[in-house]
Amino acid sequence: MKDIFAVIMAGGIGSRFWPVSKTIYPKQFLDIFGTGKTLIQTTFDRFKAIIPEENIFIVTHESHLELLKEQLPQVADERILSEPIMRNTAPCIAYACHKIKNLNPDATIVVSPSDHLILDEANFHEAIKKGIDAAAKEDRLITLGIRPSRPDTGYGYIQYIDGSPKTELKKVKTFTEKPNLEIAKTFIQSGDFLWNAGIFIWSANAIIQALHAHVEELNDIFSDGAHYLNSDKEKQFIALAYQRCPNISIDFAVMEKAENVYVLPVTFGWSDLGTWGSVYDLAEKDFSGNLAIPKDNVMFYDTSNCMVSAEKDKLVVLQGVNDMIVVESEDVLLIIPRDQEKNIKQILTDVKSKHGSRYL
Does this entry carry the keyword Nucleotidyltransferase (predicted)? Predict the structure, then answer.
């Protein structure tokens, strides 16, 4: 297990969980379901069950360093990668994988977001082990694909070549990022598409070779400065390196171009928790379809199919309300119909235009 590593990406803002998720306190550091653990704490615990704790690295924005250390004090400073600016997932992954290869040239690496929900952890662990085994044996870039349950337009889709039914790993044919509803329906009907979970498994050598082949300028930034990684000059080097990095996802940079991309179809109760609606869909509701977080703080009268997330010491009473999302933070109250949640992005733009960053 000394050659197995995990990289947890915790650099996002989670703006669709506004007003609870904000720039200074994004969703990965929140206890979304009121379980007593934040999303990043849950993700860390999930990985340390199968990967040595000292081999788990976390990438986050430098403004969230103290928050991360507060929630995961057991993670040593040398395993926290601080990004000076947000540059999407390709620079994040390039940084982490070069750093780990510098420590262990034989490393096999699992890369995962910090804010996903996994309901069946036993199946998740089994899938990760299968992916690690396959990636360690051959130079394959492996992604996990979720069997779709509906034509959702909020996910990326992976089309695979079925090949031998005896082989669980499938060769990837195409990636499609967030199609419209009609296209998503055709994907579901075809039966050879999966949701892209954004969880990757590869050897350090395989991903660095792919970065060199498809985004050479990005890879060269970290390759040329590899001798600074894991040294007292790393932070200074990264501050300059990120200024030169393009803002690009690993999907666009590598996964859509490489020939050695494979998908492992999995089923373990997954959600990327992208919206309040996804929380509503997954959480346990009362007999009228209402969800309250925390449970004891909300009283419903003649109300159905509503979701309320409020401060733990505040009582909320709803009467005669249907199909609404009500979310309260310290300085913002959001009330929006469930079927109009997609408008939050525009609302944030309007809030910034009128009030600056005060409420963001």
Answer: yes
DSSP 8-state code for residue 312? T
Tokens encoding 189: 């009907």
Alpha-carbon distance 167 to 37, whole Å? Answer: 37
Query: Tokens at residue 203, please?
Result: 């050897």
> Can you say whether the dihedral through the CA atoms of 208, 213, 215, 217 is positive or negative?
positive
R_g of the chain, CA atoms, integer Å: 21
Contact indicator for 300, 288 with CB cutoff of 8 Å: yes
Alpha-carbon separation of residue 198 from 5, 126, 167, 285 (angstroms): 17, 17, 21, 28
Q: State how far the Cα of 266 lies from the Cα of 26, in Å rounded to an integer.
A: 28
pLDDT band at 225 (very low <50, low <70, confident <90, very high): very high
Q: What is the pLDDT of residue 153?
A: 80
Rounded Cα distance between 285 and 288, Å, is 8
Distances (CA, A) of 99 to 3, 58, 79, 288: 14, 12, 10, 51
141 alpha-carbon distance from chain centroid: 18
Q: How far apart are CA 94 and CA 217, in angstroms?
A: 11
Residue 66 to residues 25, 29, 70, 259, Cα–Cα distance (Å) = 11, 11, 6, 40
* pLDDT bucket at 164, cuts 50 / 70 / 90: low
Closest CA to 24 of 61, 58, 59, 57: 61
Please give the Cα distance from 35 to 299 (Å, whole number). 20
- Please give the Cα distance from 95 to 100 (Å, whole number): 9
Confidence band, pLDDT 50/70/90 cuts, at residue 254: very high
